[in-house]
Amino acid sequence: MKTIRVVSYGVGVIGRRIAEHLLSKEGVEIVGAIDIDPNKVGKDLGELLGRQPIGVVVSDDVDDVLSSTKPDIIVHSTMSYLKDTYPQFEGILKHGVDTISTCEELSFPYATEEGKAYAEKLDKVAKENGATLLGTGINPGFLMDTLPLLLTGVCVEVRRIEVVRQMDAATRRIPFQKKIGAGLTVEEFKRKIEGGEITGHVGLVQSIGMIADTLGWVLDRIEVEPVEPVVLDRDVRSDYVEVPKGYNAGLRQKAHGIMDGEKVITLDFRAYIGAEEEYDSVTIDGVPPIHQKISPCVHGDYGTVGVITNMIPRVIEAEPGLKTMRDLPLIHATPVHMGRYLG
Amino acid sequence: MKTIRVVSYGVGVIGRRIAEHLLSKEGVEIVGAIDIDPNKVGKDLGELLGRQPIGVVVSDDVDDVLSSTKPDIIVHSTMSYLKDTYPQFEGILKHGVDTISTCEELSFPYATEEGKAYAEKLDKVAKENGATLLGTGINPGFLMDTLPLLLTGVCVEVRRIEVVRQMDAATRRIPFQKKIGAGLTVEEFKRKIEGGEITGHVGLVQSIGMIADTLGWVLDRIEVEPVEPVVLDRDVRSDYVEVPKGYNAGLRQKAHGIMDGEKVITLDFRAYIGAEEEYDSVTIDGVPPIHQKISPCVHGDYGTVGVITNMIPRVIEAEPGLKTMRDLPLIHATPVHMGRYLG
C-alpha cells in the first residue's frame, strides 16, 4: 500500500489539529510544513504540536519546500477569502501538487461573480499543471451543502430547503467564544460588527450557491441577513465568560437563496452560550418531505479535521482541475491506513 | 440540452411508479418497455399506468426492443436476487446499454462469495460493451449504506455503526402489509417464515458489506438474525387489517457485521402496524459521535423512485463497469430537466 506524502501549509489552530491527526494515521507521512509566522518558521512541526520533534522544520519558502519534498498533496489552512488565498494557490499549483484547503470561499467559488473569476483561473492553472484543488471542511463543505444535497437524493420533487446549525458556544474553544462576542453588551457587539472585528460565518453564500447550482435552481439572488446578537432572558456562562441576562451571548446569521421572489433555500447559523440544544437539522419541503436532525451538532473542530482528512484520497485520485464536494465520489471515513485505495 | 431515452425493464409496482415519475420530468423520454407478464405484453405502457396511451407497447423481446430503440439507459426493476437477474443483465449489457436496477443484491454484490462471482462477470461484460451497471434504491442503496457512510465522513475515528429503520406498516401499500404477515397469529407467521412465503428484508447483507469494505473493515462474518414477529400489548389496525393484541403486527430483522468478535455494524429493520414512531436513524460510535435521525422515516416507495431517477444522469456519465453507490459522485435531486448535466 502506498504512503501518502503531505505538506502542511498553514500551521494555525486547524492546520495543527489536522497535522496532529495525520500523525496518528498509517499510510500517511508529513514531509514538509509551511507558514509565514516568524514565531513558527525554523521550528520543528512536532514541537509546535507539543510533542517530540518529527524532523519537519516549518519554512516560509513555498517553492523550496515543494521542490525538495515533492508531496502527493498539500493540506492548506490559512485564510477564508480567495482574495487572500488565491496567490497561495497559484504558487502551489504551478508545482503540480494536489491541494485540499479549508478556505471557505474555495468550497464553491462559483457562488459570486468575483469567485467565478478566481475559479476559472484556478481551474486553468490546476489543469495545466495536472493538479486537483478542493476547498472543503465541516461548514462550508458538509453540513449546509453536501449533506442536504445528499438528502435530496431520495426526493422526486424539492421545493424548499432549510438548514439550521445551532451550537452552544460554551463547549467550544475560547477564541471561538471571543469571535462571536460572548459577554459583550449589545452596544459593544454592534460596534464590533460595524468595525469588522466580529464577522459572521463565512461560507453561507458558497453553500447556497452549491445547493442551487446542483439542483438546477437559477436564483434571483443570494441574500445574507446582518449578523444579529443573541440576547437571553437569563444569565448564562462558560468556563471563559459570564453572560448576564440582557448581554450578548453569541450570534445568529441567516442567509437565503431567492428564486422567483421566494426563499427556496434558508441557512440559519446560531452560535451562543446557553443554547438549550445543539443540533444540525435539514428540512426539505418536497416529495417525500424530509426532517433530519443530528443532535448534538457535529463538533466543528473534529468535523473539519475529519472532512479534510477523509477527502485526501479522493483528491489524489481525482482528475486535475478545481473540484467541489458535489463533483467527487461520496465522502466517508478513511481506513486507519490511508493508502488503502491508492496505488 | 440532451433528452435521455429510457427503456423500462419490468413493469411491476415499482417499475410503474418510476415510469410514472419519469413521464412527469422534462429531458427524459420512455422509448420502450419490457416485461414477461403475458397480461402486460402487447399493452401500451400509458394504459398500464392508468393514463392515455403513450405509444410505447410492452414487449417480451429484449433484443428487439433494445436494437430498435437504442436507449441511453435501462431502468430495470424485476427481482431481488442475482441468480434471477443475472441472465437479464447479461442480455442487456451485450447491447452496451447503461443500466440502473432495483435488484437488491446488485447494490453491493461483493458482500457474498456467490455475489462476488456474479460481480466479476457483470463487470467484465459491462466493460467489454462500454456499459455502466448500478444497483440501488432507498434500501439497500441509500438509508443503510450510502447515508451512514457519508456521515462517517466527518469522523476522525469510527468504532461502531448502528442503523435503524422503523416503519408503521399501516401507512404502506396492502401488498407490503401482507408481505410482513400483519394480522397472522404468531404460529401462522412462523410457518410462513419456514415455508419461505414471508422473507425478511433483502439487502441487509449488501449494506453491511458496502459499509465494511468502504471503511476498510475486514469482517469475520456477516450475521443475519432470523426474522422475528412483532407482537404488541394492544390492538392495532390499518385500513387493510386488524391486529388484535397478541397477534403478529409485522416483522423485525437485525443483521450484524462482526469484526474481531465484536458487532461493529448493526442494521435493525422493523416494519409493523402500530409503530409509535416512524424513523430512520444512524448512530456512529466514533470521534465525534454522531446521532442522526430522519423522522418520519423516508417513505420507501417515493424513496426508491427518487434514488433511481436521481442516479440516472450519474450512471450515464460514469465510466463503463459495475458500479456501486460509493463509487459514484454524490447523489442529489435532479433538476426538472434531467438532461441538464448531459451533453
Topology, please?
The structure is a homodimer of 343-residue chains.
Chain A: E1 4-9, H1 13-23, E2 28-34, H2 45-48, E3 58-59, H3 62-69, E4 73-76, H4 82-93, E5 98-101, H5 113-128, E6 132-135, H6 146-152, E7 157-168, H7 174-179, H8 186-194, H9 204-215, E8 221-224, E9 228-231, E10 236-237, E11 242-243, E12 248-259, E13 262-272, E14 279-287, E15 290-294, H10 300-317, E16 321-323
Parallel strand pairs in A: 1-2, 1-4, 2-3, 4-5, 5-6, 6-16, 7-13
Antiparallel strand pairs in A: 7-14, 8-12, 9-12, 10-11, 12-13, 14-15
Proportion of strand residues of chain A: 25-35%
The counted number of beta strands of chain A is 16
Gyration radius of chain A, in Å: 20 Å
Kindly report the average pLDDT value of chain A.
95
By CATH, the superfamily of the largest domain in chain A comes out as: NAD(P)-binding Rossmann-like Domain
Output the number of helix runs of chain A.
10
Oligomer state of the chains in this structure? homodimer
The end-to-end span of chain A amounts to: 7 Å
Taken together, the total number of domains of chain A comes to: 2
- What do we call the CATH topology of the largest domain in chain A? Rossmann fold
| Low-pLDDT regions of chain A | none
General form of chain A: globular
Q: Largest beta sheet of chain A, briefly?
A: 7 strands, parallel
CATH-defined architecture of the largest domain in chain A: 3-Layer(aba) Sandwich
* Strand arrangement, major sheet of chain A: 3-2-1-4-5-6-16
- CATH class designation of the largest domain in chain A: Alpha Beta
Helix- and strand-based class of chain A? alpha/beta
Largest interface: A-B, 53 and 53 residues
SSE string of chain A, helices as H and strands as E: EHEHEHEHEHEHEHHHEEEEEEEEHE
Estimate the helix proportion of chain A, in percent: 25-40%
